[in-house]
Amino acid sequence: MEDIILDCDPGHDDAVALMIAVASKDINLLAVTTSAGNQRHSQTLRNAMSLLTLMKRQDIPVASGNTKPLMRSLISGVSMHGVTGLDGADLPAPDFFSQGIPAIELIAKILTEHPHKVTLVVTGPCTNIALFLSVHPELRSRIKQIVILGGGMGLGNWGPTTEFNIQVDPEAAKIVLDSGIPIVLAPLNVAFEAQLLSDEIDQIHKIDNSVAQTISGLMDFYGISFGRQRWGFKGLPLYDPCTVAWLIDPSKFTSKRCNVEVETKGELTTGETVIDYYHITNRKPNAEVLFHIDRQWFANLTIDSIKSFNF
Ligand code: BDR
Ligand code: CA
């Protein structure tokens, strides 16, 4: 059983990552913290709480993170995720309270109190985790590993070579990657492969529970905003769930230990992850980088997770 804190910015694909984490018998979701990313911090907090209300998991503590990236203004993800960050679904209003402490203090509390080391899963910009490491260095040893959705080796989805989460807060990503804590990085190379095909989305539409209805609405909106024809993809890539999927079964992925640096000063490439696949530099590998996923397994995991909600 993997004990995790999910730091996210829901976001359609964050919602699926959260849903899989809640459904999984292999994951113990200790808390959810939210970041400014796909939407403003107040909206991503609300979205996370709405999703937990939908899944009847109001017992999971939630806290909101920083209002903006460490050194930059927030880039808006509205073109992908709509004005609410979760357009396309009619979500319930949150019916519980957040913890009323900053995300970094909730992370500190859980790491202090939990008897085992905890995995941090990051499906938004790295802002909260970078702040946490700076403010609470004494708790670093309580972190088992940090699993991040972000970056790309030669691929971009926001700029030609930049991925959204890293581009939003490159300085934060650099702090986390340079931290010396074990890192697993799921870049676009693997995330572009984590696709649901049309018939699999149809299967989700036919599942008779309220979580399926919500995910169906989200996928319909996301499918349009993603515009997969433009990318030449057969299916709809769901980035963020790669993180929790890897925790559930790493054998379904291929990976390689590489050095990963973040470009923070590039003229055209700020926010790019420079992944030294062939170990061309002498820089020490600092991350396990995921490259491929068993797509069919991933689709089955997503569908089975949705089916497991019996209300
Ligand atoms: C990442 O950007 C966000 O829009 C998604 O939620 C995901 O975390 C993919 O680049
Ligand atoms: Ca996200």
TrEMBL record:
Occurrences of domain Inosine/uridine-preferring nucleoside hydrolase (ranges): 4-299
Q: Which GO terms describe its molecular function?
A: purine nucleosidase activity; uridine nucleosidase activity
Write down the SUPFAM superfamilies for this protein, in alphabetical order.
Nucleoside hydrolase
PROSITE patterns found in the cross-reference section: IUNH
Q: Per the record's keyword annotation, is Hydrolase included, yes or no?
A: yes
A Pfam short name: IU_nuc_hydro
Q: List the keywords (alphabetical).
A: Glycosidase, Hydrolase
Keyword Hydrolase among record annotations: yes
Recorded GO CC terms:
cytosol
Gene3D superfamilies referenced in this protein's UniProt entry, alphabetically:
Ribonucleoside hydrolase-like
Q: Which biological process annotations from GO are given for this protein?
A: purine nucleoside catabolic process
UniProt signal peptide: none
Q: Return the EC number.
A: 3.2.2.3
Task: Fetch the InterPro entries from UniProt.
Answer: I/U_nuclsd_hydro_CS (IPR015910), Inosine/uridine_hydrolase_dom (IPR001910), IUNH (IPR023186), Ribo_hydro-like (IPR036452)
Instruction: Show the PANTHER family listed in the entry.
Output: INOSINE-URIDINE PREFERRING NUCLEOSIDE HYDROLASE, URIDINE NUCLEOSIDASE
Q: Which NCBIfam families match?
A: PRK10443.1
Name-wise, this protein is Inosine-uridine nucleoside N-ribohydrolase
Q: Please name the source species.
A: Lactiplantibacillus pentosus MP-10
